[in-house]
C-alpha cells in the first residue's frame, strides 16, 4: 500500500467569489503531481482544469504559493483550478458554463494524480480527492419570483433587518432570466433584481420602452426592503446600453449610480432605443466571420457615429458611472465607445462622474471571478433565431485577472455610492 | 416603519449610515476559523457582536462581545479586542465557543448536534452600543446566517448493521483506501456521530459505535466492530486507530492491551482513565453547593493492584492522553500520572504523549462549540437524571479544545497517514 497524500480545500463551501486554499501533504519529497479539478455542469457537460506541481522537501504542495509548471494554467495561481476550466476532450463544442439554479452550489471535485498527466483523468484513480462547493447565494439570502405588471424577474434579498440599497441587474442580448450575478450581489448586501427583458413583447415606441424600464426600476425602489434613494443599475452588453438609456432618458427615476460592463452608448440598430429590442434594423452587413467561422460583431457600431440621434446623450447622465471593458472585446466596440462617451461627457461637463476600467486582453463576457473564460461560444441571435458561434474575445489568464479585479472594484463602487456612509453627517448632497 | 438606521445617541442631527457585516466563510466546517468584519460604521462607535444558535431541542444559545469601531469605522473580530460580554480580549472564535443558554433556559443544557448531516446555523448580528441582555427586543443593525458543518462535502455516511454491530461509518471523499478510526463516546451511550463525521472530513474512515445498549457490553462486540472496520474495502486494514472520550477511553485502553483482535496503530484517550470502573465506590459521590454531582472520587485513590487497572505497560502503540486538569467527573489527571509511572516502569513511555490543560473540564470536544461546565446526565440503561459537574472554565476550556483537536489531528495523521508500514 503506497502512502496516501492528504488533500485539503478550504473553505470546503465558499461563495463563488471567495478564494480557496488547496494543499497537498504527505507526499514524498520532490514528487511530481497533477492537481485536477472536475465539474459537471447543469447541462451534464464535464469541465476540467489541471496544474503540474512538484512537492517541496517536506512533501507539500501549496497551490496558493507554488508555481504550476504546466497544464491549463501556469505560475502561482491560487484559483487557477477554477478559472482555467474548459470542457473535457470529446465534449460538444461552443460550450459556456453558466449556473442557472442559484439555490444549489457548483460542486467541484479536486483530485491529485501521480506524475504530470495531461489526459485520461477519468480512466485512472487519483491518489486523493476532495470536494468543494461554490455558492452564488450566501446562507439566508432570499429568492423571490417577480411576475407583476408584465415584468418577469427575480429579486434576491440579503439577510438581516434591512432596508438595503438596491441594484437592477441586466444581462445581454442572449436573453433569458439569468440570476447568478444578482444572487451574488445580494450575498454582498444589495437587494438585487435579475430581469428578463427580452422575452417581453416588442416595444412599439421609445416611450413604451422607457416606461417599461421605469416600472421595473420602481418595483425595486418601492420594495419594503429597499432604501428608495439608493438604487443603482448594473448592466452587461446590451444590458449596459439599457442602463445608459435609463440613466439618460427616464424622467421618473434616477439611479444613484450605474455600472456598465462591456457596453456601448451607441444604439445597435442605429435608429431608436425601442428598435434595439426588435433587432430589426441591426446592420448585419458589418458582421464578420473569422477563419473558424465564428461571428465577430464588433465592427457593427464602428465607426462610432457622430450623429447624436444614434447614441445615448451622455451629457444627460447625472450619476456616477463605472465602465468596465476588455480591449480584446470582439463582440462590441466597447473601448471605442468608452472613448466617445468620455468625449461627450467632457463636452457636457459631467465627465467627473465617469470612471473607466479597461483590461488588456480581456474579452466581452466579464463576469464574477473564478469562473471559466470563453473566447467563443454558441449563441442564438434573438431576432432571427439563427445559431452561430459568437466570438467574445479575450485570452484566458488576462480575462480571469480582469474578472477578479473588476468584480472587487464593482463591489467597492456600489458600496461607495449606495451604502450611506457615516462620514457625511449632513444630508447627502446631490451631485 | 423606519427606512434607515439613525444614530441618535451621539449627535443631535440625524446621521444616516448602514453598516456592512461579513463573515467568511459563511459555510464552514465546525473546526474552521471564520473572520467576522463590520464596515461602514462611524469611527469610535460602540457596537455589540451577537451570536444566536437554536439547538435541535429548541433551546436558545447566545454569545456576545462589546467592541468599538476603529478610526475607519471598522471592527475586525479576529484582530480587535472584545471589551466585555461572554468573552473578552482578541478572540476570533469567541462568538462560538462562549455560547451559553439564553436567560430563562432549562438548567443543565449541553449542546450536541444529533444530525451530523446538517449544519449548525448561527445567526450573527450587530447591535447598537454595548448591550448585555434583552437582545430579542432590540433592533438589529445587521445580521447574517452562518453555517457550521460537521461533514465536508463529499463525505459519505453509511449505516452499519452487520455482524450484530450497530454504528455509522463516515467515509472521506476520494478513491481510498483510508486509515480507519473507531470512535468511542462516553457513558451517556447512544450513537454520537458528529466527531466521526468531522474526522472523516479530515481524511479518516471513522466508525461511530453504539455500544452501551445493554448494561453489560461484551468485549466481543468491540472486536466485531473493529473487524467490520478493518474489512471494509475502503479502509487500510493495518492503519486503524482508536479515539475515545471518557468511558470510551477506558474501553480503548482495555481493548488495546488485552484483545488479540484489536491492534490499533495508535490511540487517543480524551478525559479517560485506565482504572476499571467496576471498582467505583458510589458512596464517594460528592455534591457541590449547586447540588451538581462530582464523580471524580469514585475511582480514587488510584489502585496499586494491577488487576484493578489496565496494564498500560503492555501497550504497543503510541498513546495520546488529553487531560482537563479541572475534570470533576473522572480522576483524569491522577490517572494520567499513574499511567506515565507505569509506562516508565515498563519501558514503553516513549509511546506516551500527555496534553494537560489547566482549568479545562471533562468534555473536551471539537473546537468552537459551547462549553458545558455542568449538564444533565443519564447513564445508559438508567432512568435517573443527574446534573453532573464536568468542570472547566469557559475560556481555558475552549482554548484546550482548540489546541487538543489540532494536536489530535496531527497525531492521527502522523501515525496513520505518514508512518512507514
UniProtKB/TrEMBL annotation, chain A:
Residues 17-148 form the Acyl-CoA thioester hydrolase/bile acid-CoA amino acid N-acetyltransferase domain. Gene3D superfamilies: Acyl-CoA thioester hydrolase/BAAT N-terminal domain, alpha/beta hydrolase. Residues 210-419 form the BAAT/Acyl-CoA thioester hydrolase C-terminal domain. The active site is at residues 237, 329, 364. Transmembrane segments: none annotated. GO terms for molecular function: fatty acyl-CoA hydrolase activity. InterPro entries: AB_hydrolase_fold, Acyl-CoA_thioEstase_long-chain, BAAT_C, Thio_Ohase/aa_AcTrfase, Thio_Ohase/BAAT_N. GO terms for biological process: acyl-CoA metabolic process; fatty acid metabolic process. PANTHER family: ACYL-COA THIOESTERASE 17-RELATED, ACYL-COENZYME A THIOESTERASE-RELATED. Belongs to the C/M/P thioester hydrolase family. This is Peroxisomal succinyl-coenzyme A thioesterase-like. It comes from Myripristis murdjan (pinecone soldierfish). The gene is LOC115355270.
TrEMBL record, chain B:
Signal peptide: none annotated. The active site is at residues 246, 327, 362. Residues 219-417 form the BAAT/Acyl-CoA thioester hydrolase C-terminal domain. Pfam families: BAAT_C (PF08840), Bile_Hydr_Trans (PF04775). InterPro entries: AB_hydrolase_fold (IPR029058), Acyl-CoA_thioEstase_long-chain (IPR016662), BAAT_C (IPR014940), Thio_Ohase/aa_AcTrfase (IPR006862), Thio_Ohase/BAAT_N (IPR042490). Residues 31-162 form the Acyl-CoA thioester hydrolase/bile acid-CoA amino acid N-acetyltransferase domain. GO terms for biological process: acyl-CoA metabolic process; fatty acid metabolic process. GO terms for molecular function: fatty acyl-CoA hydrolase activity. PANTHER family: ACYL-COA THIOESTERASE 17-RELATED, ACYL-COENZYME A THIOESTERASE-RELATED. Belongs to the C/M/P thioester hydrolase family. This is Acyl-CoA thioesterase 19. It comes from Myripristis murdjan. The lineage of its organism: Eukaryota, Metazoa, Chordata, Craniata, Vertebrata.
Amino acid at each position: 500500500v503506497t502512502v496516501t497524500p492528504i488533500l485539503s480545500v478550504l473553505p470546503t463551501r465558499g461563495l463563488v467569489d471567495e478564494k480557496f486554499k488547496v494543499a497537498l501533504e504527505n507526499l514524498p519529497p520532490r514528487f511530481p503531481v497533477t492537481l485536477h479539478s472536475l465539474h459537471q455542469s447543469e447541462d451534464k457537460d464535464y469541465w476540467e482544469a489541471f496544474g503540474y506541481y512538484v512537492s517541496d522537501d517536506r512533501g507539500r504542495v501549496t497551490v496558493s504559493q507554488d508555481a504550476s509548471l504546466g497544464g491549463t494554467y501556469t505560475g502561482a495561481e491560487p484559483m487557477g483550478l477554477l478559472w482555467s476550466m474548459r470542457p473535457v476532450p470529446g465534449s460538444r463544442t461552443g460550450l459556456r458554463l453558466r449556473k442557472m439554479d442559484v439555490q444549489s452550489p457548483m460542486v467541484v471535485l479536486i483530485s491529485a494524480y501521480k506524475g504530470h498527466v495531461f489526459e485520461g483523468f477519468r480512466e485512472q484513480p487519483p491518489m486523493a480527492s476532495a470536494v468543494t462547493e461554490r455558492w452564488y447565494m450566501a446562507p439566508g439570502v432570499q429568492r423571490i419570483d417577480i411576475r407583476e405588471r408584465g415584468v418577469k424577474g427575480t429579486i434576491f434579498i440579503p439577510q438581516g433587518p434591512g432596508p438595503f440599497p438596491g441594484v437592477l441587474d441586466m444581462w445581454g442580448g442572449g436573453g433569458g432570466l439569468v440570476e447568478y450575478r444578482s444572487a451574488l450581489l445580494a450575498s454582498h448586501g444589495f437587494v438585487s433584481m435579475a430581469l428578463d427583458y427580452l422575452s417581453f413583447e416588442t416595444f412599439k415606441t421609445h416611450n413604451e420602452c422607457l416606461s417599461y424600464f421605469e416600472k421595473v426600476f420602481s418595483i425595486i425602489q418601492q420594495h419594503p426592503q429597499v432604501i428608495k434613494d439608493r438604487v443603482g443599475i448594473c448592466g452587461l452588453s446590451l444590458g449596459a446600453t439599457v442602463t445608459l438609456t435609463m440613466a439618460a432618458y427616464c424622467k421618473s427615476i434616477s439611479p444613484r449610480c450605474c455600472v456598465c460592463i462591456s457596453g456601448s452608448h451607441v444604439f445597435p440598430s442605429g435608429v431608436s432605443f425601442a428598435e434595439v429590442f426588435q433587432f430589426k434594423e441591426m446592420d448585419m452587413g458589418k458582421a464578420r466571420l473569422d477563419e473558424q467561422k465564428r461571428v465577430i460583431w464588433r465592427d457593427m457600431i464602428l465607426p462610432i457615429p457622430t450623429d447624436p440621434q444614434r447614441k445615448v446623450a451622455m451629457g444627460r447622465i447625472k450619476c456616477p458611472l463605472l465602465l468596465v471593458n476588455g480591449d480584446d472585446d470582439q463582440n462590441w466596440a466597447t473601448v471605442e465607445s468608452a472613448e466617445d462617451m468620455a468625449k461627450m461627457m467632457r463636452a457636457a461637463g459631467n465627465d467627473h462622474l465617469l470612471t473607466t476600467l479597461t483590461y488588456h486582453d480581456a474579452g466581452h463576457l466579464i463576469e464574477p471571478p473564478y469562473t471559466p473564460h470563453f473566447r467563443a461560444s454558441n449563441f442564438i441571435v434573438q431576432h432571427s433565431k439563427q445559431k452561430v458561434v459568437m466570438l467574445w474575445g479575450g485570452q484566458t489568464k488576462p480575462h480571469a485577472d480582469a474578472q477578479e479585479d473588476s468584480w472587487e472594484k464593482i463591489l467597492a463602487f456600489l458600496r461607495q455610492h449606495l451604502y450611506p456612509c457615516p462620514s457625511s453627517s449632513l444630508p447627502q448632497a446631490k451631485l | 416603519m423606519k427606512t434607515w438606521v439613525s444614530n441618535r445617541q451621539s449627535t443631535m442631527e440625524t446621521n444616516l449610515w448602514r453598516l456592512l457585516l461579513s463573515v467568511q466563510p459563511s459555510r464552514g466546517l465546525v473546526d474552521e476559523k471564520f473572520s467576522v468584519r463590520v464596515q461602514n460604521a462611524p469611527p469610535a462607535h460602540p457596537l455589540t457582536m451577537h451570536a444566536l444558535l437554536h439547538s435541535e431541542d429548541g433551546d436558545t444559545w447566545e454569545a456576545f462581545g462589546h467592541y468599538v469601531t476603529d478610526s475607519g469605522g471598522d471592527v475586525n473580530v479576529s484582530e480587535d479586542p472584545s471589551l466585555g460580554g461572554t468573552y473578552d480580549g482578541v478572540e476570533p472564535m469567541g462568538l462560538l465557543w462562549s455560547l451559553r443558554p439564553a436567560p430563562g433556559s432549562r438548567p443543565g443544557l449541553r449542546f450536541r448536534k444529533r444530525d451530523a448531516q446538517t449544519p449548525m446555523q448561527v445567526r450573527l448580528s450587530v447591535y447598537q452600543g454595548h448591550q448585555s441582555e434583552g437582545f430579542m427586543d432590540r433592533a438589529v443593525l445587521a445580521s447574517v446566517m452562518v453555517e457550521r458543518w460537521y461533514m465536508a462535502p463529499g463525505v459519505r455516511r453509511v449505516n452499519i448493521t452487520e455482524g450484530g454491530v450497530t454504528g455509522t461509518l463516515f467515509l472521506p471523499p476520494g478513491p481510498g483506501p483510508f486509515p480507519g478510526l473507531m470512535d468511542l463516546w462516553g457513558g451517556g451511550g447512544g450513537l454520537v456521530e458528529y466527531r466521526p463525521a468531522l474526522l472523516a472530513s479530515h481524511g479518516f474512515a471513522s466508525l461511530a459505535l453504539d455500544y452501551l445498549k445493554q448494561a453489560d457490553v461484551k468485549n466481543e462486540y468491540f472486536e466485531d466492530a473493529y473487524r467490520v472496520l478493518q474489512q471494509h474495502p475502503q479502509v487500510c486494514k493495518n492503519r486503524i486507530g482508536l479515539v475515545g472520550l471518557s468511558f470510551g477511553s477506558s474501553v480503548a485502553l482495555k481493548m488495546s492491551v488485552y484483545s488479540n483482535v484489536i491492534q490499533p496503530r495508535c490511540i487517543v484517550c480524551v478525559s479517560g482513565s485506565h482504572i476499571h470502573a467496576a471498582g467505583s465506590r458510589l458512596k464517594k459521590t460528592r455534591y457541590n453547593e449547586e447540588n451538581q454531582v462530582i464523580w471524580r472520587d469514585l475511582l480514587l485513590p488510584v489502585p496499586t493492584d494491577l488487576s484493578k487497572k489496565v496494564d498500560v505497560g503492555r501497550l504497543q502503540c503510541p498513546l495520546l492522553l488529553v487531560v482537563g486538569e479541572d475534570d470533576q467527573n473522572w480522576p483524569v489527571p491522577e490517572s494520567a500520572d499513574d499511567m506515565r509511572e507505569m509506562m516508565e516502569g515498563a519501558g514503553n513511555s516513549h509511546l506516551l504523549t500527555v496534553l494537560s490543560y489547566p482549568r479545562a473540564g471533562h468534555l473536551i470536544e471539537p473546537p468552537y462549540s459551547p462549553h458545558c461546565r455542568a449538564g444533565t446526565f443519564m447513564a445508559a440503561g438508567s432512568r435517573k437524571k443527574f446534573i453532573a459537574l464536568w468542570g472547566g472554565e469557559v475560556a481555558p476550556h475552549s482554548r484546550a479544545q482548540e489546541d487538543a483537536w489540532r494536536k489530535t489531528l496531527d497525531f492521527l495523521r502522523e501515525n496513520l497517514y505518514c508512518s512507514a508500514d
